[in-house]
Amino acid sequence: MNMTTVMTVTVAILLLAILFLRERRNKKLLQEQLGFLQRDLKSAYIKFGKSFEHFVPFIKDFPGDREKTVFLGMPIDFISFDNDSVKFTEVKTGSSQLNKNQRRIKQLILDKKVEWHELNYDR
Length: 123
Hints:
Strand content: 5-15%
Number of strands: 3
Largest sheet: 3 strands, antiparallel
Strand order of the largest sheet: 1-2-3
Shape: rod-shaped
Radius of gyration: 30 Å
Number of helices: 2
């Protein structure tokens, strides 16, 4: 093998190594950017859901009397004090689901473990 061939092969290997390292760096940068975009998208979904919650009582299928509904937001979105019942309503958008605390509260309500307490303090 002559010196020109050795130099050509060496330069080719160095160029391939540089291209490989550059592509690896680009891949890492793209993965970081994708992570930022995914977090931004999740944040946008959450903001949309929180904004949407405020309009839900005006939707035709809302289960309570909108005039007698109170927005809580956490841990349950709405409580409706209708003439014949008290209704708890949680609003979810997209693929969101009840969190652990909301599932626990739902089960307490379904198990009829709801109590009334009246406190009266003399001044």
